[in-house]
């Protein structure tokens, strides 16, 4: 009888476990994306958005900002990506899962 009660207690307590939400990457707000304009320098972009998560050693002209959020309790996952392309030191285009300003949309 005690063995059955202890097994039931284990199952009941394991159902009450809280799992932490996990956020990784750059948390970008749409209001910050709206501040981007063609011609901004790399330093200006870092000031607005912060440093990118992915630093491509072979292509210094492409920056990638990644964000993921996992809600373990609901089993949901959100992933977002923003890719910025530079020509030299100037921002020329952007693409990704955010609303991109018209001046930066790739043709």
UniProtKB/TrEMBL annotation:
Subcellular location: Cell outer membrane
Coiled-coil ranges per UniProt: none
Record membrane topology: Lipid-anchor
Keyword Lipoprotein included in the entry's annotation: yes
Single GO biological process annotation from the record: protein insertion into membrane
Keyword entries, A-Z: Cell outer membrane, Lipoprotein, Membrane, Palmitate, Signal
A Pfam cross-reference name: BamE
The organism's place on the tree of life at top rank: Bacteria
GO CC annotations, alphabetized: Bam protein complex
Outer membrane protein assembly factor BamE domain segment(s): 25-94
MF GO annotations: protein-macromolecule adaptor activity
Family per record: Belongs to the BamE family.
Summary of the function given for this chain in its UniProt record: Part of the outer membrane protein assembly complex, which is involved in assembly and insertion of beta-barrel proteins into the outer membrane.
Quaternary structure, from the entry: Part of the Bam complex.
Protein name as catalogued: Outer membrane protein assembly factor BamE
Gene name tied to this protein: bamE
């Amino acid at each position: 009888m005690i063995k059955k009660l202890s097994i039931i207690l284990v199952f009941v307590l394991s159902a009450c476990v809280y799992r932490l939400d996990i956020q990784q990457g750059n948390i970008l707000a749409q209001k910050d994306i709206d501040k981007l304009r063609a011609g901004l320098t790399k330093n200006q972009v870092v000031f607005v958005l912060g440093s990118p998560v992915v630093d491509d050693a072979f292509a210094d002209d492409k920056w990638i900002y990644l964000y993921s959020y996992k809600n373990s309790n609901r089993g949901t996952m959100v992933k977002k990506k923003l890719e910025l392309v530079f020509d030299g030191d100037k921002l020329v285009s952007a693409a990704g899962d955010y609303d991109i300003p018209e001046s930066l949309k790739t043709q």
